Amino acid sequence: MNSWCLIILCAVFLIITINGAVVLDRDDVEQQGLYKKSDHVTILTNKNFDKKVYGQKNAYLVQFYNSYCGHCRAFAPKFKSLAADIEHWANVVKLAVIDCSVEENNEICRQFEVMAYPSLRYLHENYVKGNAFVGDKFSSADTADKLKSQLIAKIQSEQTLGRLPLAPRLDIAAYASYAAVLSKVPSDIKYTFLVFENENSTAGSELALDISDYKNVIVRRVHENSELADIAGVTHFPGLVAVKSTLEPTPLTPKNPSSQNLLNAVNTFLKTKNYAFPERNSAVEDTLNNFISEQFAPEHSLIIWMLLVLSFPARKKLKEYLTELRDTLASRNQWSGNEVYENVIRLEVNHDPVYTSNSDYIGCKGSQPQYRGYTCGLWTLFHTLTVNAAQKPGLEGPRVLSAMHGYVKHFFGCTECSVHFQAMADKNRIFQIKENDKAVLWLWIAHNEVNLRLAGDVTEDPKYPKIQYPSVSNCPKCRLSRGAWNLPAVYEYLQRVYGAENIRDLRRARSAAAPQSPFSNLDIGMLSFLYMAG
């Protein structure tokens, strides 16, 4: 028996003696008042306000509101629209809300001298707590675009004071040549995107913030009446030109140079250059984050992470994080819940960013909050593990099934669900699976068995009906002439969809260059699966 198996057996025995779940942040709330976490805002309360707001590297635009206020209700859709639009500005500024109608939050609202609702306050980065510090007031503009313009102007103003060091430069200048621009950009920049506009335009600033997390590219604002505008041949404004580090320009101005179209033009251009776009959380990665932060007791983390590090096709930082977490947990026989929590936080800081964003289960987001999400991502994660384990030497696939069974049996939060799952696993002889390819197909068969049972059920997302997958349109070769399954073709399809080469984080959903998630039609609610199976 190799050392891997010994560690797994040791961890299984620890299940009997160790208790304590790891919860990353007990003060977070999913919903309060007019806002939900999925609205791309930080929900503040009296319990988490200090921790979330003070001493942060990013600024905050905080809305103090009263959920009974009619004006607040009318303003909420605009604030949510802005939050969704600028979610990728999070390294610069985040949007947050606090409901002053909640009695426990009254002290915070009084501290910030809130006299009317909604009240918007801008809190700069590294903000400190104090009686005199109540933030800079914002007007509640009547449209999301006006509020965005107001926020951009504030960021520009803050930069003149030497603040927001993590923000891209938003100042505008006149240049006489491409060389003059590039002489002032860092040496690692491969492409500089020049936005020619007037001083009052926000298009260049918005583009700079939209791609502020892109590596090796940068945006510079250029006066539309500068000499360089004539050299570049820009006649329509705002104009857009990409300049390579070798001073080679490429005109990119779209016919309708709106902010969104400028972003699309940049993304399309970079795609032609095989640019490595910023990694976004996929449904699989969101689920993995949930596993660590909410689901696992310490001893079970040891079991699963052994498999994840071996089988999960993770990004480099996530892989390094999982590996060190595995090694840390393997270094001792017993851990308390607090000790594991401290290690998780420490390693997340050391490997930051581990999870690139809080992206609300991209690829598994349901049409309504009650659909899909974590449970869909959980199923997708299990598929991903079995497929990628099958590509490694040894019998890793059956081990994944065994670990999955152990997780559900000992640690899944719903006892009745766990009982039903174990009955289904026994009926389908999960422990008699001895080959990698059969482990992959075992999950696929269970997937379709449950889809058939739950089609039309109240748990089904009407936008993503449960089908016998893959559909004929997605995989014509997967079915024989009379509708029977062509198992070799199905196996090949699963390898293609869930294999490492196809596990990619989604780019901006609103970008013209963004691909559609390959998992969008694989709608299995794992909770429903566990409850109904058997």
Automatic annotation (TrEMBL):
<keyword id="KW-0325">Glycoprotein</keyword>
<dbReference type="GO" id="GO:0006457">
    <property type="term" value="P:protein folding"/>
</dbReference>
<dbReference type="InterPro" id="IPR036774">
    <property type="entry name" value="ERV/ALR_sulphydryl_oxid_sf"/>
</dbReference>
<dbReference type="Pfam" id="PF04777">
    <property type="entry name" value="Evr1_Alr"/>
</dbReference>
<dbReference type="Pfam" id="PF00085">
    <property type="entry name" value="Thioredoxin"/>
</dbReference>
<protein>
    <recommendedName>
        <fullName>Sulfhydryl oxidase</fullName>
        <ecNumber>1.8.3.2</ecNumber>
    </recommendedName>
</protein>
<feature type="domain" description="Thioredoxin">
    <location>
        <begin position="35"/>
        <end position="157"/>
    </location>
</feature>
<dbReference type="InterPro" id="IPR039798">
    <property type="entry name" value="Sulfhydryl_oxidase"/>
</dbReference>
<dbReference type="InterPro" id="IPR017937">
    <property type="entry name" value="Thioredoxin_CS"/>
</dbReference>
<dbReference type="GO" id="GO:0003756">
    <property type="term" value="F:protein disulfide isomerase activity"/>
</dbReference>
<dbReference type="GO" id="GO:0016971">
    <property type="term" value="F:flavin-dependent sulfhydryl oxidase activity"/>
</dbReference>
<dbReference type="GO" id="GO:0005615">
    <property type="term" value="C:extracellular space"/>
</dbReference>
<keyword id="KW-0274">FAD</keyword>
<dbReference type="GO" id="GO:0000139">
    <property type="term" value="C:Golgi membrane"/>
</dbReference>
<keyword id="KW-0732">Signal</keyword>
<comment type="function">
    <text>Catalyzes the oxidation of sulfhydryl groups in peptide and protein thiols to disulfides with the reduction of oxygen to hydrogen peroxide.</text>
</comment>
<feature type="domain" description="ERV/ALR sulfhydryl oxidase">
    <location>
        <begin position="367"/>
        <end position="469"/>
    </location>
</feature>
<comment type="similarity">
    <text>Belongs to the quiescin-sulfhydryl oxidase (QSOX) family.</text>
</comment>
<dbReference type="InterPro" id="IPR017905">
    <property type="entry name" value="ERV/ALR_sulphydryl_oxidase"/>
</dbReference>
<dbReference type="InterPro" id="IPR013766">
    <property type="entry name" value="Thioredoxin_domain"/>
</dbReference>
<feature type="signal peptide">
    <location>
        <begin position="1"/>
        <end position="20"/>
    </location>
</feature>
<dbReference type="Pfam" id="PF18108">
    <property type="entry name" value="QSOX_Trx1"/>
</dbReference>
<keyword id="KW-1015">Disulfide bond</keyword>
<keyword id="KW-0285">Flavoprotein</keyword>
<dbReference type="InterPro" id="IPR036249">
    <property type="entry name" value="Thioredoxin-like_sf"/>
</dbReference>
<dbReference type="InterPro" id="IPR041269">
    <property type="entry name" value="QSOX_Trx1"/>
</dbReference>
<keyword id="KW-0560">Oxidoreductase</keyword>
